[in-house]
Amino acid sequence: MKRLTIAVLLVAVFGFTAWAMDKPMDGTMGKTMTPSMEQPMGNDMGAGMGNEMGKTMDGSMDKVSGMMPGAESMAVWKYITEVSPYRKWGQFPDHMGMQKGKSPHGALHEVYVNKAGLMKGTPKPVGAMVVKDNFNSREKLKFITVMYKVQGYNPSAGDWYWVEYSAEGKVLVEGPGSCAGCHSARAANDYIMVSDH
Ligand code: HEC
């Protein structure tokens, strides 16, 4: 009888863990980030800037004829899926292929980096983009997290614009949000966790 109870408990705990891993990170951290809280930030601070910068340097660096998007979630999604599909980008030489992930991001991930982001050393130039596919332990794509350096967007934290999408492109978190705070543990490495390139 006792054994049965323990078994039931174990199943419940593992079940919950698996469920929690599948939630967007802000859910697991018990913080709700409503779009209304985050949206104004992206729109007010980023939009024009990114576009202007793109024209001069980043468009040509990525060999893309269009402009770089502003710090705006839908424009960034369109850019990374249609204009310059991110899975065709390169990867950090010290972080290639599928890798084990850490909390809060999920069990497995693969990180793609555009040309500006792959320039050696830190801080990365304006226009740098790092896109991470986040998978659960069964290699199912759950979230896509992006950091994108936009001139003047957030000077106190490396000018990175942060956004998290569902696998289908739904915006879950946008702005510095909770992202910049945690990543600032590596501020000396321009907020990048996985690479020292
Ligand atoms: C509590 C800490 C924490 C928070 C909050 C957090 N991250 Fe991360 N992030 C990490 C760690 C640790 C890694 C490296 C391990 C991994 O990816 O699993 C990482 C890696 C990344 C990477 C790959 C590039 C790099 O920095 O290594 C991106 C992109 C990223 N995070 C985006 C985001 C976005 C977008 C948010 C907010 C929605 C966010 N992160 C919130 C800790 C955090």
Describe this structure in words.
It is a single chain. By secondary structure, the chain is α+β, with helices and mostly antiparallel strands. It has one domain (24-189). The chain has six helices and six strands, in the order ααααββαββββα. The protein has helices spanning 2-21, 25-28, 35-61, 73-83, 115-118, 179-183; strands spanning 99-100, 108-113, 129-135, 141-149, 160-166, 171-174. The chain has a six-stranded antiparallel beta sheet with strand order 1-2-3-4-5-6. A hairpin with a 5-residue loop joins strand 3 and strand 4 (141-149). The model is unreliable at 27-65 (pLDDT under 50).
Write a brief structural summary:
The chain is of the alpha+beta class. The protein has helices at 2-21, 25-28, 35-61, 73-83, 115-118, 179-183, and strands at 99-100, 108-113, 129-135, 141-149, 160-166, 171-174.
Search tags:
197 residues; alpha+beta; 6 helices; binds heme C
Series of secondary-structure elements, N-terminal to C-terminal? HHHHEEHEEEEH
Number of helices: 6
Shape: elongated
Distance between the termini: 56 Å
What profile does the largest beta sheet have? Answer: 6 strands, antiparallel
Number of domains: 1
Strand content: 15-25%
Q: Please give the order of strands in the largest beta sheet.
A: 1-2-3-4-5-6
Helical percentage: 25-40%
Bound molecules: heme C
Regions with pLDDT < 50 over 5+ consecutive residues?
27-65
What class, by secondary structure content? alpha+beta
User: What's the total number of strands?
Assistant: 6
Radius of gyration: 18 Å
Rounded mean pLDDT is: 81
